[in-house]
Amino acid sequence: MDNLPPLKDVISKYEIRAKKSLGQNFLLDLNLTSKIARYAGNLEQSDVLEIGPGPGGLTRSLLNEGARQVVSIEKDNRCIAALEEIQSLFPGRFRLLQGDALSMNVTQYLTDPIKIIANLPYNVGTELLVRWLNSKNWPSFWQSMTLMFQKEVANRIVACPGSKAYGRLSVMSQWRCNTKIAFNIPATAFTPPPKVESAVVHFEALNEPKFPAEVDKLEFVVSKAFNQRRKMLRGALKGHFINVEEGLFSIGVLPNKRAENITVQEYCAMSQVLIRK
Q1: DSSP annotation string for 117-180
Q2: What is the reported pLDDT for 1?
Q3: Does the residue 119 lie in any domain?
C-alpha cells in the first residue's frame, strides 16, 4: 500500500472531479475509510463487494484490512486507470468491473461469505439497498452490509414506529436484518463537501426474517400505507385491498391508526390477511 500515491495526487493526475450526475463525493481520509472497513468485522475469510470506489480510498482500506477478495464496480471511466494501479499491486485479490451496478449480476465473481461495503453514490444508494433487501431468495447472497448514506436516509433505516423518520425503508430493513448506525461522517470529510452529513449503517442479515411474510406482499402493503402516511389506514389502503377494516380488526390493528404507528410485526401480519383487489 505504501507504493500507492496519495489520493489527492491520484485525483489530480487523472483529473477526477466529482460529478453530481453520478452522485459522487470522494472520501479521501484513509483513517475514515479504514474505520469503515474495520467496522465490517474480520474480512480475511470474506469476499467484499464495493460499489462506486471512485479513486479507491475505501478500496485501499478493504485490501489493507485483509479482505480475501474485493470486487469493485465503477461506472466512471475516469477512475479506471487509478483503480488499475491498485489492482496491479494486489493480483488475485482485487477484481475491477466497469459498468452500472444497477444492471450487473456480480455474484458469479464472488464466493461465500460475502460482505457489501461501500460509500454508495447518492443517486443510486437507496435503489440498490431496496434491491438487496427485497430479494426473493433469502438468505441473500450477502452476509452483512456496511454502507454509507446521507444521514437522513440512515435515520430512516433505523427509525422506530412513531417517529417521523419511520417508513418503508425502516420496515423492510428491520424485517430481515439487525440494523445500526455505526458512526456519522461530517460533510467536511468529503471532496467536494456535500450539503449534508453522512452516516455509516451496518446491516446483519438474519437467517430467517423476524416475522412470517412474503416479500412481495409485504412490500406492497408497506408502500401503499406510506404513500399516504397522513391518512388513517382505512383510507390509505382503500382501493388497494378488499375488506380492509375487517382484515385489520382480525389481527388487532385499529383502522384509524396511521402508517407510522404500525410495527414491523403488524405490517407482516397485514400482508398475510389483506387481499389485494
Answers
A1: EEE--TTTHHHHHHHHHT-SSSS-S-SEEEEEEEHHHHHHHHPPTTSTT-SHHHHHHHHHEEEE
A2: 66
A3: yes
